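#structure-requests
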Amino acid sequence: MTADKQLAVVAIGGNALIRDTAHQAIPDQYEAAALTVRGVADMIEAGWNVIVTHGNGPQMGYILRRSELSIHEVAPVPMDYAGADLQGALGYMFVRAFRNEFRRRGIAREPVALVTETLVDPADPAFRNPTKPIGSQMDEAAAKALAAQQGWVVAEDAGRGWRRVVPSPQPLHIVDYQPIVQLARAGFVVICCGGGGIPVIEEADGTLRGVEAVIDKDLASSLLARTIGADLFVLATGVERVALGFNTPRQRWLDRMTLDEARLHDAADEFDKGSMGPKIKALIAFLEGGGTRGLITSPAALGRALRGETGTLMVP
């Protein structure tokens, strides 16, 4: 038992598993996962209990593309089931990568993957205005034909063709948080909340029903970290530190941010809305909810970041 150890939630993006367009195959994604877990193993060797969450954006695109290509022969895959498929597949990928890394290092830990549901509000405004593009790009006629046939909402995607769009509601509750934290406190490395969790709504009689939507992985991970009282919330991304004026002549790397500073920078649109912005919002929510330490760094730099050698630390 390792209940005395500190508990961290580490959120890893789905894009972290795809190095470039030449390495998108599943064996390539496993190799990327194997590299990614090394940083988490550094944390475990340093004495942490760890919960790993992960994105699935590119992988969801692949599974929906396969579904679209075969739609004339088999019924399309509902998004909640596609999410469950990916939680199982990517969970297996991370479990195998962790198990092999632990064997290599002689670490006496066991990884476990848990299919996770996330409760959303059926009255969330996102359901009235779907905006999240998913699946493949199509010409307008094909997109509208599929929309009429399948009941989809489609929209033009920034001059790149037409795509299906779905709601992205706010996560309200991690349904499976109790087994997640119990397993983590017992020393298991838990892989969960894949893709932000499978979005479900609660019916009047208390039953749960999956819905066609996607949940922001960083916001769901922040909610999980707050719910279980994690000591540290880590967002593992493509850069070692956060920068102001990223990729501009005034670029300045940040070693540390307070909650108030993060709010000011976010309000000033310092962070890209498609990449770093959601991560900053997730850390703000974590600290506002009682969290004491947030960290943004790359997976490979996790060990050094915990020693204060790199990374951007966020504190209340």
